[in-house]
Structure formats: C-alpha cells, structure tokens
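Service request form, structural biology core

Requester: graduate student, group of Dr. S.
Request type: structure prediction, single chain
Budget code: on file
Notes: please return the result as structure tokens.

Sequence provided:
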Amino acid sequence: MTMQTWSDVRSQALGMATSLTVFTPEAMTRQESRVPGLLVLLHGLTGNHAVWPMRTDLQSLADRHNLVIALPDGARSFWLDQAVGLEWGRWVGSELPALLRSVLRVSAARSETFIGGLSMGGYGAVRAAFDYPRTFGGVISLSGTLDVAERAFRSRHLDLYEIGFGDLERPRRSDDLVTRMAAAAPNTPTPNTPTPNTPTPNTPTPNTPTLSPATHSVAVPLDVRCFAVCGTEDRLLKQNRRFRDIAEEIGLDLTYREGPGGHDYVFWNEWLPVGLDHLRGTPS
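Core staff response, request fulfilled:
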C-alpha cells in the first residue's frame, strides 16, 4: 500500500497549513519505472480528503494508470478563490501540482496532468481546468454542481454565495461555468502556446506571485479534454444537461454520459474508472 497522509502542508495560497492524502503507484518503488502522471481528485461539499480512500479503491487506479493521485482538503470552499475567504482555486490549480512535482517524481506534462471530483468537486475540477489550462490536460466531473446560478441550488446554499461567490443574487461571471461558456465565441483560441518571453497566466516567473483566477480572463480553453457524467436519478441532472448543451454549442472537447443511479459512491465508483480510461486513451 502506498497511501500517504501529508499533514501540516503549508500553503501560500491559503495562508495556512492544510492536509492531503496521496496515493503513489506501486511501480514508483522500482528505479526503472516510468514517470507517473498526476490526478488531483476533489471531494464534495460534505466530505474531506479522507473520504475518497474509505469508499474507493484508489490504489488500483493509481497502479493501472501509473498516476499519483492527490486528495486535498477543501472544506466547503467550492474549490474557488472566494470573494471573502481563501484562494482554494489557486491552491489546487497551481500551487498543489507544483508542490507534488517538487516532492515526488511526477510528470510536468500537461497531457499527463488531470483533475477530477464529485459534486462540489466536479465543479471545482472543471473550474480549475478552465482557469489553469496550461496545468491540466483533462478533467473528470462526477455528478458535478455545474450550474451554480441555478435558483434551487442558490436557495439551499446562501452562505456559500455570500462567502464564495460574492453576491446573493448571482455568482461572478468567472464562477458561473454555464454563462462563461455561453459567452465564449465558437472559435475562441486556446491560450496554450505562449508568446516567447511572455509569462503564461498560471505559470509563475521568478519573484512574481502566481496569478489567481480573479486576474484571469474568463475565456474557455476548448481543447481541455472533459469527461462529465451524472445519474438519471440525481437532482443535479438538469444542471449537467445545461452544461452539456452549452459545451457542445461552443465546441468544448467534452464526452458526456448518463447512467442509472443517484448522488452516491455506488455511482461514482462505477464511473471514475470509465472517466480515467477515457482520458488515458483507453475508452470503455
């Protein structure tokens, strides 16, 4: 077993210490092993970094796909740079991948770096993939809360709106994935090939602080490979379908699936391997 719990990890983005769980593939113990890729996997609104390992065989997925799987803790943050709070988006989108690459032998290639999550974590994963397109080449949303402007969602979580999204009536444009995609022109160029000597939006230069999504444009990188799935008995199904429809309209590289099931680990454990197979080039 190669599960590790990292406690007291100091984060500049959060301004505090935090914790995470890390799975490394068994092959990493051998000198001749291939450099593994990275999957950052985000929990939902009522969870923490310890829940995934209790419910899901992540070691098998790490071994099968030669991935380091990192499970950060995000409280009820929605994994974004909050209007009144902490920079959770910068933590998972920029600082955490850089930390893992510095501590472990993890690939720095965009094509080998993925982010995923369930429910709140599905939103956070898509948001991070949009905000940090040079970090992540693929994203998995499992029953994601993909339309945070939905009236029913807002009425259930007014506290999150005030702290995270900054407005009780509507989220910020960068936070509202559906509106953000709808505003994207069909031929929006992906900011994936930097101009020589020009810093990329999420790549720090010496003595320059990492930019947060608040300073990013709200462009949508159309070439980030997205896999999204939702259960047909899930109350978030309509949100996911709205996200799918807009994504298809603008030409986002999205594979969307639905299947029998609700908002639970029975469904997520069925579909997480399918999403990984898809992103790793072995579609199920």
